[in-house]
UniProtKB/TrEMBL annotation:
Belongs to the aromatic-ring hydroxylase family. KMO subfamily. Keywords: FAD, Flavoprotein, Membrane, Mitochondrion, Monooxygenase, NADP, Oxidoreductase, Pyridine nucleotide biosynthesis, Transmembrane, Transmembrane helix. Residues 13-333 form the FAD-binding domain. It comes from Pieris brassicae (White butterfly). Its main location: mitochondrion. Pathway: Cofactor biosynthesis; NAD(+) biosynthesis; quinolinate from L-kynurenine: step 1/3. This is Kynurenine 3-monooxygenase. Catalyzes the hydroxylation of L-kynurenine (L-Kyn) to form 3-hydroxy-L-kynurenine (L-3OHKyn). Required for synthesis of quinolinic acid. It is found in: Mitochondrion; Membrane.
Amino acid sequence: MLLENGGKKPLNIAVVGGGLVGSLEALYLARRGHNVTLFEYREDIRKTPQIRGRSINLALSVRGRRALKDVGLEDIMVKEHGIPMSARMIHRPDGSTYSIPYDARTNQSIYSIGRNYLNSILLKESENYKNVTRNFNHKLLETNLPNGELTFIKTDTKEKVSVKADLIIGADGAFSTVRRAMLKQPLFDFSQQYIEHGYLELCIPPSEDDTFQMPPNYLHIWPRGNFMMIALPNQDCSWTVTLFMPFVNFRSIDSESKLLEFFDKYFPDAVPLIGEKKLIEDYFNGSPSPLITVKCRPYHVSDKALIIGDASHAVVPFYGQGMNAGFEDCTILDQLFTKHSDNLADILPEFSNTRWKDAFAVCDLAMYNYIEMRDLVTRPSYRLRKAVDDM
Ligand code: FAD
């Protein structure tokens, strides 16, 4: 649905990155009547098989739902596709479990959503807007942000493509090329931190009669002090299982017998669910991925360029808020377009000046929540204070 824009001339806006945040932002801008060109490095995700190593599902929370509601997609994502998770289910080392509700008072849930499905729905929805053009296989190479200029290379034909836009929005993820160009701007602060832990994705398949092998309406956690495993339910009754652990521990498990010994000791109830053969295959065919936090500011360059999503605040995944915070960026930006009648010279600085505190807070909370999930969640509350002090 197009919004009334008071007869103003539409802006030509280039969105770099057709991931979750870029494709949502394209919808928000298209609804305002602007001409949006989306440039995405990869092929159209709707035509490619699942990419291993990218989390297959994500926890959608109220920030993300709000944004999806704005663009008319909340019902399809939450009611038709999402699997509600109303509590954490904690798995003890002896295999017994107990649950901790997220919201015991009003019983709100977070929702497990397929990453590819969500991205596909956002891209498909953009086809309903004539003012959105999608360019896949376009990798951003160079920028002149103050002039609104971008140069891409087409990954299939190797042809170079140059464009000029009224506004560049960099939604090109944690290793953003748009952000890299901002590093040259005076007074641009930037820090990144890799943590010592990585993650590896495993899978619990559906049971033989195509049902869930564990109760589905929970985020399952196996907290083990310095490491943990989690599982989120998928629509096909499988589970995306993610093992978070220091890289040094991943490296020390270098044989099938060591792997089975490790799982039998720490995650005995998960072994029959995953299956020994599949566990060995998935563990040794994958390699653990690193986790990074990025903080930077300001997020804009004059009235020409802005970064949002992971490009502006990459967070470790333990708070389940990376995408949700990126979606909230889009909501806030939309509110500023309304407040300032699409005047970029007012919108961009206000976004930078007001957003960074929340973005920095999410980065810090996500880091803290790893300790909470892998360790503190199992401790009686009187010991919590000491554990936090010892961190
Ligand atoms: P991305 O998803 O990284 O998309 C960036 C896009 O830009 C990509 O499509 C990429 O191909 C494209 N691109 C990159 N470089 C270029 C270039 N040079 N030219 C053109 N295009 C380019 N968040 C949650 O809210 N809930 C969760 O439960 C959750 N779980 C997670 C679990 C794990 C294991 C991880 C690693 C992350 C998790 N996150 C979660 C975080 C979430 O995945 C990210 O915050 C989210 O994907 C950010 O979206 P984005 O669009 O900003 O970046």
